[in-house]
Amino acid sequence: MALQVEFRDVTKAFPGTPPAVDRLSLTVEAGTILALVGPSGCGKTTTMKMVNRLIEPSSGDIVLGDTPISRMPVKELRRMIGYVIQYVGLFPHMSVAENIAIVPRLLGWNKPRIDARVDELLTLVGLVPQTHRARYPRNLSGGQQQRVGVARALAADPPVLLMDEPFGALDPITRVRVQDKLLAIQGKVRKTIIIVTHDMDEAIRLGDKVAVLRAGRLVQHEAPVDILRHPKDAFVAELIGHDRLVKLLSTLSVASVMSADAAPADTPSINRAATLEGAFLRMLDTGSDALAVEGGGSLHIRDLLRVSTG
Amino acid sequence: MSFAEYIDVFGDNILFLLEQHVILFAIALSAAIVLGVVLGTLVHRFKRLDTLIVPVVNVLQACPEIVLLALAIPFLGIGISGALIPLFVKGVLPILRNTASGFASIDPRLLEAARGMGMSPAQILLRVEVPAILPIVIAGVRISAVMLVSVLTLTAYIGVDSLGTLILQGISRMDTTPLLIGSGLTALLAITVNYLLFGLERLASRRVS
């Protein structure tokens, strides 16, 4: 189950400063991932914390499914929303199993049900229940801690998941691995996920939609491919970086631009699911201007020249 | 009188004084724990109290015990309360300080995560804060306890029975036997208390890195 999250003209002003979030309206469709991205102080974390009412909006409303959250009891609301923060969020004095069991225990589940759920979740996030259940967070690697954090947030099967810079403390290689794991998990659980990050690469990798914020205002809210193709202004372009088109190539798959024409004999081949970046590198590598796509069809270098205009 | 003879004659008295000492110790430490934990929590919750409470406790801490005892006589008289009140005060500071710094050492993001998961303030206190600060508080209690065991010998000066009575006897009669028994038992008691609480501290911190 997943619920739509809708921000309706939401403003958060702290006294004496410009609004942290300024008349924000956007909808996160049920079962999709929204990446909130922007520099420090742009209001992305404030935006997220208003969803589980760690921060109350000054005006406007946030609607979960069809209920405004201002009309829901805070505790009930929070138990419907999984919350993942940087890995410090695991309680050091509780074992992995106890950490995951927090919300189910608050909800009064019985022990057999909790135990079964803990094992199910550990398996889902790719940890072996028998070996990891009784461990303490300090005995886990950063990536493992983060996966336990995700398991904990999913414990009571909440319709919505909030993730605050969840992978910020991980090294780049582990980060990509855990991001892939999250996408695989999302393929199975289909939650509505709002993820806060300052890393545009992460936003593009994870988001079905990306919302770029600056100084509390929504600058651009589109699918990653569209943002890469048409950054709305210099600010967004700078956030993406000078390798915008390389990122675009790495976001699109061969299947999205290939043609049905058969490739000439002896051309090197590539998988349909490979990225265009991979295809381009293969062309450079083999000195060939065309690739045969496995299972039929071909990709010509001309196809790559068209992607930036979509 | 030889050692064996002394124990033979005064054995019951030694046991009585040991018992008195342990009772005084238990009362003084309990009071110090209650006051230390309560004040430590208040100092943490209301930062302004910090400037009010800590200097007072610091001054009391710096006063020599014998001075505190002497000053207490005109106000509290000679007896149990006159002996206990000025002394347990000495046990408050380490517990207060460790309680406050224990609370301060908890990562605020951890508490926010707990709130974000829908825990009530009471649940956060019992399930998150208390387990996190417990080893630190026990470490403070251990310091206070060891100090109180030895400081309590001074109560003998104002006529309250404790192991200090034996030490005082030894000094006034130039008799090393009660002197050695009194100070030996005091030291033994301090060492025992230290190790017991150290074990408790280890047990509580087993789970926290």
UniProtKB/TrEMBL annotation, chain A:
GO MF, one term, reads: ATP hydrolysis activity
Listed under GO biological process in this entry are:
quaternary ammonium group transport
Which superkingdom does the taxonomy of this entry point to? Bacteria
Q: Where is the ABC transporter domain?
A: 5-240
The record's listing under SMART domains reads:
AAA (SM00382)
Keyword set, alphabetical order: ATP-binding, Nucleotide-binding, Transport
Query: Matching Pfam families, A to Z?
Result: ABC_tran (PF00005)
- What family does the database annotate? Belongs to the ABC transporter superfamily.
Q: What is this protein called?
A: ABC transporter domain-containing protein
From TrEMBL, chain B:
Please tell me whether the keyword Heme is annotated for this protein.
no
Which compartments does it reside in? Cell membrane
Superkingdom of this entry's organism? Bacteria
Q: Per the database record, which ranges form the ABC transmembrane type-1 domain? A: 18-198
Q: Which GO terms describe its cellular component?
A: plasma membrane
Q: Does the keyword Membrane apply?
A: yes
Transmembrane ranges? Answer: 22-46, 66-89, 132-159, 179-200
Q: State the annotated membrane topology for this chain.
A: Multi-pass membrane protein
* Name of the protein in its database record: Osmoprotectant ABC transporter permease
Q: Which organism does this record belong to?
A: Ancylobacter dichloromethanicus
User: By which gene is this protein encoded?
Assistant: opuCb
